Amino acid sequence: MTFLGWALPVLPLAAGALLLLAGRRLDRAAAAAGVAVSAAVVGLAIAAAVTRPSVRFPLLAGAPAGMAVDGLSAVLVVTVAAVTFAVLVYAAGELPAAAARSRFFGLMLVFAGAMLVTVTATDLVVLLMAWEVMGAMSYALIGYWWHDPDRVRSAGIAFLTTRAADMGLYLAAGCALAGAHSLSLTGLDGAGAPWRDLVAAGVVTAALGKSAQLPFSFWLSRAMAGPSPVSALLHSATMVAAGAYLLLRLAPLLAAVGWAGTLVAWVGAVTALVLGAVALAQRDLKQLLAASTCAQIGFMVLAAGVGAVAGGTAQLVAHAAAKSLLFLAAGAWLAALGTKDLAELHGAARRYRLVGVTFAAGALTLAGLPPLSLWVTKDSLLAVAADASPGLYAVGLAAALCAAGYGAKALIAVWRPADAATRRDTEQAGTGRVGRRQLLPLPALAAAGAVFGVVALPALAPAWRRLLGVAGEPGPGAGELALSGSLAGLVVAAALVAARRRANVTVPRWAAGPARHWLYLEAAAGALVARPVMALARALAGFDDRVVDGGVRAAAAAGRLTAELASGRVELRLDGLVAEAGRGTRRLGALARRPQTGQAHTYYAQTLVLAALLVIVVLLAR
Amino acid sequence: MTLQAFLLLAAALFAVGLYGALSQQSIVMLMMGLELMINGILVAGAAFWYFVSPGSADGQVLVLVAITVMALEMAMGFAVVTALFRARDVDVTDEAGDLRG
Amino acid sequence: MNENPAYLLPELCTLAGAVIGLLTGLFSPRARQWRVAVICAAGLLAGLVAAAVAAGRPDAVAFDTFMIDPVTHVTRVVVLAATLLVVALSAGSVRGHRRESEFYVLLLFAAVGTMVLGASADLLVLLSAYLLASIPGYALAGFGKDAAGTEAALKYYLMGALLGIVMLAGITVLYGVGRGTAYDTLREGLASAPAGAAAVGVVALLAGLMFKTGAVPAHFWVPDVTEGAPPAVAAFVTTVPKIGAFAALYRIAVELLPRAPVDWRLLIAILAVATMTLGNLAAFYQDNVRRLLAYSTISQAGYLLVPVVVAGRSGLAEQALLFYLAAYAVTNIGAFAVVVAVGEDRLAGYAGMVRRSPSLALSLVVCLLGLVGTPPTGVFVGKLLMLGAAVDGRYAWLAAVAVLNTVASVFYYLRWIVPTFARPAPPSTGGINLEARVVAYTAAAVSLLLGIGSGIALTFS
Amino acid sequence: MQVVAFWVLAVAAVAGGVAVFVVDSMARATFSLLGSFLCVGLEMLLVDLHYLGVLVILMMIMEMLVMAVFMIMYMMNPAGLMPMVMVHNNRGALIISGGVFAALVAGIVVIPWPARAGAPPRDVTFELGQALMGPKMLVMMVLGVAILATMIASVLLATHRGRYDRYGDALAAGRPADPTGADPAGRAGSADPGHPGGGDLA
Amino acid sequence: MLSVVIFLPLAAALGLLAVPRLGDRAVVLVWIGACAVDLALVVALWIGRGGGAADRISGETRVRWIPSVRASYHVGVDGLSLPLIALTALLFGGCAVYSLRLTHRVRAFAVLFLFLETVCLGLFAALDLLLFFVFFDLSIVGMYFVIVGWGHGDNIRSGLKFFLYTFLGSLVLLLGFIGLYLGAEPHTFDMVDLTRTPPLSGSPGLAALVLLAVGIGLAIKTPTVPVHTWLPPAHTDAPAAGSAILAGVMLKMGTYGLVRIAMPMLPDAWRRYAWVAIVIGVVGVLYGALVALAQDNVKRLVAYTSINHMGYIVLAVGAAGLAAGDVAARRLAVTGAVTQMVSHGLVTGALFLLSGVLYDRGRSYDLGRYGGLARGAPVFAALTAVAAFASLGLPGLSGFIAEFQIFTGAIGSGTAMAAAAGAVAILGILITAALFLRVLHRLLLGTDGELSGRVNDLRGAETAAIAPLLALSLVIGIAPRFLLDVIEPASAAVISLVAR
Q1: Are residues C306 and C383 in contact, defined by beta-carbon separation less than 8 angstroms?
Q2: Judging by beta carbons within 10 Å of its beta carbon (0-12, 13-18, 19+), is residue A196 exposed, middle or buried?
Q3: Could you tell me if C418 lies within 8 Å of chain E, comparing CB atoms?
């Protein structure tokens, strides 16, 4: 079993590292190797899900590290492996031959490997390591086209934002050691008094950052700068999912701390609602999908906050499949038509039918339309939320309406017949074709996304819960299911009608701006954090040059200074060590040499006067 | 005739010699000043021997040493002056002031 | 009363070397005066052997006025070894001079005087030794008979004569109030002496010794003589007399002054601070290397005074002083040897020296860094012991001043070291002085070995 | 009687000393100095130091003769033909020496000098001789060496012609090649009678 | 054996001096050979130590040196010094390989570096305060000559500043050592004896003074804010190999001294004033990172990140002194501190060598004049990126292992002060991340700058010098046990010593 435990994460990591090390030499074989490795990883993941391997190894003193596959991990490793495989298959088709494929597939494999470690880690050290490596890989992948300064900037913002949140995990690790004398994930809820709250605070911060929940959401918008397969992977089964996973994993801690659960639930719910609105306001397909990711992850976070682990996990898996599908489809259009603007994409689905159909399935799943999976999973977690607080349920329901809205909006935009707005190649030069390998994974993902919800149906729910090791989680009532389903249906229908009539849905001005621009979160972060820090840094650097070092130089020039003080002219010019020290010591040196007149009689006089002074000193000192 | 009287004489000679040593430009005159200082010391040494500790000969030896010192220093002084005069044709200290700073 | 001349064997060997050398010189053709150098070196070596043998014997007092103890042993060894180095150092530059014989002979006379200075237990012997150690120096300073040399001789002589007289006056006063000139008599006599007279006497006595050590207030001759005299002589007069003078100072501090009604520790501490600070400051921006070295020797004299301040109060003082003296002597001579070998006084003349003669440059660096007190040279160990003694003797502030001064001193030593690494190597000006080179290498090596093997050196002292 | 003699001699000695720096000729200065020394030698006789007193007198006569020779050699105004004012830093010198004198006088008056212990022996000179052969032997030994060193040193400095100038570099010449019309300095150096055992060692 | 390791480079240096007729290439090859043999010996020493859990000193040699002050040539290695000795040997080897194409006064350079290697090895192996000091001082001298002789820009001035500043520090340190010596009964300079029976335990005031002196001396060398101002100019104007050694090895002397001397010998005073170290550490972390963030000169920037990284170490040793804290956590902090010394040596050494490559090609360190270097110099870019990520503490590289232990140890010790300090210090990793991303963006990525055309890719020797450092950083980042197994017993010992 140990072998499997090691092989599962090590295979993609090692293969990825190898591809990275090889540089451009392996570009030609990289795609095939990447796909093959990810296929093998799928196999390993399934095997691991069945056999549940676990490994423990020493890493730091007093904190044994380990990786293990339990129910939750089993679900996630399979999800991660499968989505990765699908995305890589697609990427093998999309990526131009001249691209640095070795780097791309290497990074993707390491990225996925890090996610695999994240979801299997049993302690904070290993978790944090994988967690941060994943962040760094996301940086490298978002900045994959590094020639473009803007994309590089996006990558930097994404990395810094997530790393800022990651500091919470460092804090949590320290507090865990202080409170529980262990870094194991399982014992965190038993930590001592102030420490447990601090651990929870740290974990929550890190998870919210990773999952792009409020107020960190803006980085996900920036993450769109990467290639479409990257978005597909990053938005579905990895990265953003890691935050949700961590909160689901640590739901007992959240429950134990009390305020943390409530906070997390509300953040999730509000994110689901507000980012849903943001998604509605987007005019760019990928930006819409990105905002919808935040919103959908919000449901999972809400689930973790209220302890709906089964519902949240189901939501995670279903969303992973649907969202990767949607991004791949958007990517396929982008590659073929050279645009991702919603208006310009009019007619795209009709032109590439298979893409269009699978996209429709994914969009409707996203919209929560019965009987597709997100409808069920959402309701199963909202059911728990309703128990916790009706307010939460209401917000969740509103967010579900938003989801239906943006699902429908995306669907309508691409399925609309081509019209005056339709354009091509506004963003990049389109290839005009969608390759076979790009199409290959779409139907499978669409199917998975559509039907995975069955696990939350009353018939299968107990087995699902057993798998995840949770008990006593109420399933959704029929009424609730009907309510949300019909609401979603209504919204979609209304949207279809509105689209048919070419009705202009006007959004109030005060809401349109913030919603289009992701609530100006990035601008706020820049103004409140980045720019002040940079200003502080500049000020400190100036301070360092002038004052701290100046103090040293001033000490060197003390001789001169005292001389000037004595003569009433006080001026402190700090211009260079040697100039200052030089002048000071030169002066002192000249002073010291002044008695050396060369005249013997002055030597006589000085010697005698000094001797007389010494006599006086000695007499006085008695 | 008291110790103090002798010492006063010694001090006077010493001070006069000191003045000469400090003020004379001519090296030979300067050396005279030095000799006068030793002159004072001779008086003081003799007086201390006689008035304080005549029991031991230390004072006498001191005077003897002082006389020898005087002779040797003067001999060296003349030699130095000769060498200096040969080398740069000066016999006053003021003109031997190249080395300074 | 012990009048066995064997107790003075090292001194007598040296003296014999001088006298035989003198006589040989009278009958040596001009080009073959090297025989005198050999004889003098033999005398010094014999003296060294005798001193080493004597070091194994128990302490004694010879002629009532000559103390034979570890201080004397070390003084003898260091003086003899340093003189030997100077003899070797000067061999190249005085070869064929019509007074070559006298040169060596006078060096040996001064060495004898210095050894007696360090061992004397009577103020009159001290004064006589002062004369014997000084007078050859005056002549040596003017050895070149050039304008600068004679001026140096004049200034050296004038300072020496005045301070000799001042010292004589001090001795007279101390004799007057202490009823004697022998240290043990005076020690008791001074206990009840009137403080005013004792203060005048002590200050005047120390003033004379300060002339020999080249310390404030009698340091004025040092730069002028060092610049004006032949370099080998400069090496001698800034090194050898110091050894005896510090030994004498230490002895006075331990034997003569303990019960004197004078705060002599403070007095010497003031002198130490003034000397090291003045020497260091004056050395800044000095463009003549010999003057630079002169001021450096002044500052070193300041450091050397520190163990004297705590003499008798710290167990480390004696060792600190003696070891520092030995290390200083060899290092200082090494630095001068480089100057002799390069034959260049301007600081600028050392630019690019690494290129021309790397090993000589290395010796220079070792010696100068040694003077800074950089480990593992001997001066470092000396400085360490000195600081330790100061702290131990409750003069921590003095140690702090010494540390500050050491840091400041780095500056001017580096001003010399740095240009040697400069890229453009101007054509060499100095001749090849083989003896000086060898002395430089030897001194640098000994300086290092003294530091590394200080354990061995210290067990013998 | 003795007291009177003391004070007379004392005043004369000081007056002689002062005269050294007041008179305007080197010759007079030299003889003033000699006078001062003679007075001091006589004062010594007053305190029973007969041998030393006489020694001082004789030594000083010799030394002043030498000094006279030097004056003639080096001073531009040996016979007082021209006014001689060659002082520097006169005020400073006056202040310092005056200050020293004042301090010394104050000390002499204020300090409680130790009382006399013991009495002078019958034969003072014998006592001196005994001391020199006994506890102070080293003093004279060292001084003897110093005298030797002084001879060598002063010769080295003062003469510009050594044995190799007179007998050739190989010391092979039978007769010294001395210049006939010797310059004064050279003669002075080689004929310096002032120090014991003077003369050119070569 | 250990003495052979220490003095082998010096012997090689003397050999180089003794054989004057040797081409530059041959000189460097001899140099590389000596470094390689020395490294092999160190590896043998490491392996020969075995995996014993207990901390012990191995390879001990003790020869009388200055018996009157009980100073001896006493060397030995334990878990604190062995990693640093290995780091020293490796880094010097890297510098030797890096200098393969050096043309300017090669022999002197090689001799100086071999001499410095002996000095650095000797310092970490020293078990006698005086011996420690000797090496401490010599390191300053040697580095001064490196800066003055082979530096660029305003190197004379920077070198002088470096020398005077650190020399002053060393003398203050010496005063502290003398204090320790005099405080011990019987007086001794021997570290083992001093550690066994801490001096001045009866007089807290004196102990505090001595700790102050030792602390100032080591702080200047480390350097900590506010006595760090010699560092940036010295680094900027030093040759690349010199900077690598200065940052990689010599800065460790200060922190090593804290762990080796200050903590175990003055446990009482250290516990009392641990908060000072904590405050200084945190200030250093944030200050160094922030000032680095505003730099446009690559080398200066890296120099300031050194201050930041050293700040973590000072914070860790400070937190380790809080007696109230959890023992296991404090051990973790000390282990982290030592790991950080090694990690920083590897990573910053590599960064300085890389900036040396940059200067070699473009004659400038100005970030604004480069850009898009990944295009023309992919290997350079890749290594720089790895080094940058290692420096910003990315897991999988050594920096994370070190910093994580420091944070966790400091916070985990459970005292409010250390926890708060640790929490604040975590901000440092965010700022360093920002500043290194800034470097990557402006140097390697984006569009070309005016000097980008001149920068061609790494040569074989350069890669061979830099890549092993980063590879080792990667190994430590992934499988740190081989290192931690050596350090942990020693840090446990330090913690128990400081608890007395």
Answers
A1: no
A2: buried
A3: yes
Which residues in chain B are closer than 8 Å to D66, comparing Cβ atoms?
Answer: 74, 78
pLDDT per position as a tens digit, A14-43:
999 999 988 888 888 888 999 999 999 999
Helix or strand or coil: residue E64? strand
Cβ of residue B36 closer than 8 Å to a chain C Cβ: no
Q: Considering the entire predicted model, what is its pTM?
A: 0.84
Q: What's the whole-number mean pLDDT along residues E413-435? A: 91
> Comparing C113-122, C422-431, E393-402, which segment has the lowest mean pLDDT?
C422-431
Distance CA B9, CA B43 (A): 7
Question: Exposed (0-12), middle (13-18) or buried (19+): which is E366, by Cβ within 10 Å?
Answer: middle
Flag whether pLDDT at A578 surpasses 50: no
Nearest CA among B91, E371, A35 for reference residue D184: B91
Contacts 24+ apart (CB under 8 A), C41-45: C41/C17, C41/C84, C41/C87, C41/C88, C42/C17, C43/C13, C43/C14, C43/C15, C43/C16, C43/C17, C43/C18, C43/C108, C44/C13, C44/C14, C44/C17, C44/C80, C44/C83, C44/C84, C44/C87, C44/C108, C44/C111, C45/C84
pLDDT in tens, A376-435: 888 888 888 888 888 999 999 999 988 998 999 888 888 888 888 888 888 888 888 888
Two tokens, residue E429: 């990793």
Instruction: Pick from E408, E413, E415, E457 the residue to mutate for testing the A interface (most A CBs within 10 Å).
Output: E408
ipTM: 0.83
**pLDDT grade for C164, boundaries at 50, 70 and 90:** very high
Asked if residues B31 and B77 have their Cβ atoms less than 8 Å apart, the reply is yes
Q: Is the pLDDT of residue C166 over 90?
A: yes
The whole-number pLDDT of residue D96 equals: 92
The DSSP letter of residue A490 is H
Would you say A240 and A234 are in contact if contact means Cβ atoms under 8 Å apart? yes
DSSP secondary structure letters along C296-313: HHHHHHHHHHHHHHTTTT
Per-residue model confidence as pLDDT tens digits over E388-403: 999 999 999 999 999 9
Please indicate whether, in this complex, the C-beta atoms of B14 and D70 are within 8 angstroms of each other. no
Cα C109 to Cα C95: distance, rounded to the nearest angstrom: 20
The Cα of E311 is separated from the nearest Cα of chain C by a number of Å equal to 27
Helix/strand/coil percent split, chain B, to 5: 80, 5, 20
Residue C382, number of CB atoms within 10 A of its CB: 30
CA–CA dist C229, C234 (Å, integer): 6
Distance from C-alpha of E57 to C-alpha of E35, rounded to nearest angstrom: 24
Interchain CB contact of B53 with C (< 8 Å):
yes
Distance CA C79, CA C71 (A): 12
**C175–D contact, CB cutoff 8 A:** no
